[in-house]
Amino acid sequence: MNRPSRTSVAVAAGLAIAALLLAGCASAPEPTPSPTASETPTPPPAPTPSPATTVAAPDPADVTTWVISGAGFGPVERGAVFPGVAEPLSAFELAPVDASCPRLSTLSPVEDSSDAAALLLIVSESGDRVEDVWVSGSPDASGALPVAPRTAEGIGLGSSTDELTAAYPELQQIAQVSAEAFGYAVGDEEGGWIDFIVVEDVVMSIGSSAEPRAPKEFCG
């Protein structure tokens, strides 16, 4: 009787193991991935609207509520009808400066006791429109300044050069009026200009004009 050779037995055993492995691979099911739960995105919170800033209307009788800008001094605006611009300002009276300076008029408080500064109005050559507005003043014997409008940045008569340049980094020096007086301006062609005349480092005159100005005199 012939015995099977060791080689044939090994081959047969190998084929049997391979068959078992293949059967095991075929019968083992592949794992099914679990469905991922979808997350509902949380919408961002709605922005809270900023409260509207309200600017108080200027009081026609109180120059401290008038703001100086390139457009004028509070209710006294450049381009306004002249002399009609003064009609709503019952606490002030309009008067010509001098017959030799027909384009200049002052807007002064009616009450003699008022410490408000007078405004200088320069009208157009046709005489029917306000062209420039100015205010000037210097300390009296007690050191007090006349009450006058100020800019939105708080610059007014009596402000120092340091305060002026800090309020307006873009300030331009446009003229030297005298040995101790200098003219400055800030603004643009569209919105107009605010002019400052500084004497010995103190603001003595402020104007609102269409172009930068630092006049040595207003008549002439």
Q: Overview of this structure, please?
A:
The protein has a domain at 63-209. By secondary structure, it is an alpha+beta fold. The protein is built from two helices and twelve strands. Residues 4-27 have low confidence and may be disordered. The chain has an eight-stranded antiparallel beta sheet, with no helix packed on it. It has a four-stranded mixed beta sheet with strand order 3-2-1-8, with no helix packed on it. The chain is 13% helix and 30% strand.
Q: What overall form do the CA principal axes indicate? A: globular
The tally of beta strands, per DSSP, is: 12
Question: From the alpha-carbon coordinates, what is the Rg to the nearest angstrom?
Answer: 43 Å
- Give the topology string: H per helix, E per strand: HEEEEEEEEHEEEE
Helix proportion range:
10-25%
- As residue ranges, the low-confidence spans are 4-27
Strand content: 25-35%
Sheet with the most strands, sense and barrel status: 8 strands, antiparallel
Please give the alpha-carbon distance between the first and last residues.
Answer: 148 Å
Sheet with most strands: strand arrangement: 4-5-6-7-12-11-10-9
User: How many helical stretches?
Assistant: 2
Mean pLDDT, all residues: 84
Structural class: alpha+beta
